[in-house]
UniProtKB/TrEMBL annotation:
GO terms for biological process: glycerolipid metabolic process; intracellular signal transduction; phospholipase C-activating G protein-coupled receptor signaling pathway. SMART domains: DAGKa, DAGKc. InterPro entries: ATP-NAD_kinase_N, DGK, Diacylglycerol_kin_accessory, Diacylglycerol_kinase_cat_dom, NAD/diacylglycerol_kinase_sf. It comes from the Eukaryota. It catalyses: a 1,2-diacyl-sn-glycerol + ATP = a 1,2-diacyl-sn-glycero-3-phosphate + ADP + H(+). GO terms for cellular component: membrane. Keywords: ATP-binding, Kinase, Nucleotide-binding, Stress response, Transferase. One of its GO terms (molecular function) is ATP-dependent diacylglycerol kinase activity. This is Diacylglycerol kinase. It comes from Manihot esculenta (Cassava). PANTHER family: DIACYLGLYCEROL KINASE, EYE-SPECIFIC DIACYLGLYCEROL KINASE. Residues 82-238 form the DAGKc domain. Pfam families: DAGK_acc, DAGK_cat. Belongs to the eukaryotic diacylglycerol kinase family.
Length: 461
């Protein structure tokens, strides 16, 4: 098995969904009252000349030139020391209902504008390509403050799971390029589900009413321990010429090939389009993905509807009913009768080089590959199987840094509802490590991305 790529965070655990607000107040609220603002600012505020160098390198898209210019200005004569925990914050101003801009202003008031980035003004890859490179350039020229700032850097992300994944995916370039260390990442939860935040102890929501909550979150980011999280590379292959509108997390790539050991029924297309990306939380195929896709586009088309997590969940639930998750007769469309009719799945398990065909239960209408123990706003669909069951199925206890994905199925809306209220566990299908290809063989709107004859998905840690 390939060594899993990992990122920083707090210790992973399961956070019950119904306790998220109480826990969030405990995590970020009252206990932040006693934190001294000036002392906190001293620990995380980057020296002014470095803040300006980072800002200008991103603005002018010239990390090397800006770094050399700031090095030659004589600013280094001040011999400033790097703070205890230099930090930058990325804020998704469209998350958290209408509170995103307000939170950004609070953070900028505390830390300064140069250390707080709105994701719609500064993209995370721009910070990696220009901001961090500028610090590395200054460090290479002999600036010890820049060197220490780069080595101690931590990042906070104010947004939902998608925003956090966006940041982590951009930071993954540092590992590929050998530019370590990779900054640990903390979370201010502003999204709908916030399962990444729940898994690493940041709570299920952010108590905006508590002004001390910002200080507490930053203090925890300074003092909190670092743990590891698996990242999963996703490769999507489909026939050439199909019209695709991929999300920002998927990028077009020319480097793709199908494992020769995998047997595929029927002829393959001569030319293919390939997209690759990284996910940290989960990946789903089927009705669950269809509902999520529809909700995402509805929210983008009518942003005034997305006023906060509770409103978003109500819209999501109503969209589930409208898409046939509960009531639509599953007769004419094979994709509605069950994924077994349109999908074949092969996996490689731990310490195994051979492909194993995994049959899809005929009643399953959604398949989820889960990396965390939190899903759907703090639910645990995999459950907590006893040791005897794990041994019988060849499974091990699930952790977010074990190099394994848990694959489970949801049958229909009523089954999913019982899973979400912890009355039952989801349908366990497999636990795998190295590769996970899915073959969709029927014409249809699979994944709500494109109509295809063949769609291959390959996962590897």
């Amino acid at each position: 098995m390939d060594s899993p790529t990992s990122t920083g965070g707090l210790s992973a655990r399961i956070v019950p969904a119904r306790s998220s607000m109480i826990e969030s107040i405990g995590v970020c609220g009252l206990s932040g009252v006693g934190i001294d603002k000036e002392n906190l600012k001293k620990k995380l505020l980057i020296p002014k000349y470095l803040r300006l160098a980072i800002r200008d390198s991103i603005r002018f898209k010239d990390a090397v030139g800006v770094g050399e210019r700031y090095f030659n200005t004589g600013e280094l004569n001040a011999r400033e020391e790097a703070p205890e925990c230099p930090m930058v914050v990325f804020v998704n101003s469209r998350s958290g209902g209408r509170h995103g801009p307000e939170l950004r202003e609070r953070l900028q008031h505390l830390m300064g504008e140069e250390q707080v980035f709105d994701l719609f003004d500064v993209r995370p890859h721009e910070f990696v390509e220009y901001g961090l490179v500028c610090l590395e350039k200054l460090a290479g020229l002999g600036d010890f403050c820049a060197r220490d700032t780069r080595e101690k850097m931590r990042i906070m992300v104010a947004g939902g799971d998608g925003t956090v994944g966006w940041i982590l995916g951009s930071l993954a370039a540092l590992n590929r390029q050998g530019r370590e260390p990779n900054p640990p990442v903390g979370i201010i939860p502003l999204g709908t589900g916030n399962d990444l935040a729940r898994s690493f102890g940041w709570g299920g929501s952010f108590p905006f009413a508590w002004k001390s909550a910002v200080k507490k979150s930053l203090h925890r980011a300074i003092t909190g321990p670092v743990c590891r999280l698996d990242s999963w590379h996703l490769l999507v292959m489909m026939p050439f010429g199909e019209v695709v509108d991929p999300p920002y997390s998927l990028k077009h790539t020319e480097d793709c090939s199908l494992d020769q050991g995998l047997e595929v029924e029927g002829p393959l297309p001569e030319r293919v389009n390939c997209y690759e990306g990284v996910f940290y939380n989960y990946f789903s195929v089927g009705m669950d993905a269809q509902v999520a896709y529809g909700f995402h586009h509805l929210r983008n088309e009518k942003p005034y509807l997305a006023k906060g997590p509770i409103t978003n969940k109500l819209i999501y639930s109503s969209y589930s009913c409208g898409q046939g998750w509960f009531l639509t007769p599953c007769v004419s469309d094979p994709s509605l009768r069950g994924l077994k009719n349109i999908l074949r799945m092969h996996v490689k398990k731990v310490n195994c080089s051979e492909w194993e065909f995994i049959p899809i239960p005929k009643s399953v209408r959604a398949i989820v590959a889960l990396n965390l123990q939190n899903y759907g706003s703090g639910r645990n669909p995999w459950g907590s199987p006893n040791p005897e069951y794990l041994e019988k199925r060849g499974f091990v206890e699930a952790h977010p840094d074990d190099g394994l994905l848990e694959i489970f199925g949801l049958k229909q809306g009523w089954h999913a509802s019982f899973v979400m209220v912890d009355l039952i566990s989801a349908k366990h299908i497999a636990q795998l490590c190295h590769l996970f290809p899915i073959e969709l063989v029927a014409d249809g709107d699979e994944l709500n991305i494109v109509k295809v004859n063949y769609l291959f998905l390959e996962f590897r840690s």
